[in-house]
Amino acid sequence: MWDIIKSTTPEIFISGIKYTIPIAIISFIISLIIAAIIALVRISTPKGSPIKRFLWQLLKSFFIFYVWLFRSTPLLVQLFIVFYGLPSVGIQLGPWTAGIITFSLNSGAYASETLRAAISSVPEEQWEAAYSIGLPYHKVLSRIIFPQAIRIAIPPLSNSFIGLVKDTSLASSITLVEMFMTSQQIASHNYQPMLMYSIVAIIYAFFCSVLTIFQYYLEKKFEVK
Q1: Residue 19: is its pLDDT beyond 60?
Q2: Which one, 63, 109, 156, 158, has the greatest CB density within 10 A?
Q3: For residue 55, how many other CB atoms are within 10 A of its CB?
Q4: How far apart are CA 118 and CA 150, in angstroms?
């Protein structure tokens, strides 16, 4: 048994470094961009012509629908729709592309609610004080509101990223050879599924533990003194 552990653990671990972690990082960065755009649109009420306000409301409604859709359906189903379903309408995506798109859209829906709640939690007086000294909207956001909102959003966003690292195991269902798929392939050759799945579980736990420690120091760094 120890020979199997010594020979297979490095292969699974390297697969995590090469595929699992990069997929999670890339998807999370994209999801934060999506989340920031959605959160800003949803908290904003533009002034201007009726047409402009109507178009803005239309965009806001689309984002509300998008968030509802991705929070209301299982991630596994979303992966299957993007990878196996889209080819039926002429859109063919590779496993990497399909995985990153799906993880990004899914995480973006949840992260947008986190950012929206964090921005909304900043007292209204902060906005009013900033406007009273003549700051334009974008400077109010970048200099006053966002720094405070980020402090609030860091813990839930960190938890979302750790969850995303674990969710990448679902990418094996669309033939993406990440850690879990690697352990499955090894198990099919050595007929030791219990051992292989236990090893990959321990490696996932290791990665998530490291991220949890990083989250702790990040929260300490950004906590209000």
Answers
A1: yes
A2: 109
A3: 13
A4: 7
